[in-house]
Amino acid sequence: MSNTKSTNLNDIKFAKRFAEICQTSKPAEVARNLDISYPAAKNYLNGKIPNTPTIIHISEVTSCSIDWLLRGIGNKFIENNGYQDTPQPSGELKRLIRDECKKVFAEMMNVQTETEKEKVIVLRPEDIKEEKVLDESPVLPMQNK
Fold this sequence. Notes:
The protein is mainly alpha-helical. The protein is about 50% helix and about 5% strand. It has 6 helices and 2 strands. It has helices at about 5-20, 25-35, 40-45, 50-60, 65-70, 90-110; strands spanning about 75-80, 80-85. The termini are far apart. The relative contact order is 0.08.
């Protein structure tokens, strides 16, 4: 038996597990979600095994077990040094959740977020063509100091 065939079979199995953990087989989406280059994503989807720092990065972003990703052994997902069988949110989903939590927290604390701050428009007197008073309340005289 040739050793090359088993390597190719292992590469194909890795590619399937990699696509499964990424929840897509589209290189552009994988690259975006994992913050890796498009060519690297395409290579991994074709069965090329990433280097150690990249495997660790993929595991951190996806909460995937390195053993499962590389060899198909054990549980698929990890959490706090333990294993579990449910997927963790992707990096993009984590960012969306974090942004939503910031909005809720800001609302609870009556703080405006950067995107919700009111815009202030400053007009110069020469830019004002007409001035109307909409409120009929009495005008208080100014006090001289």
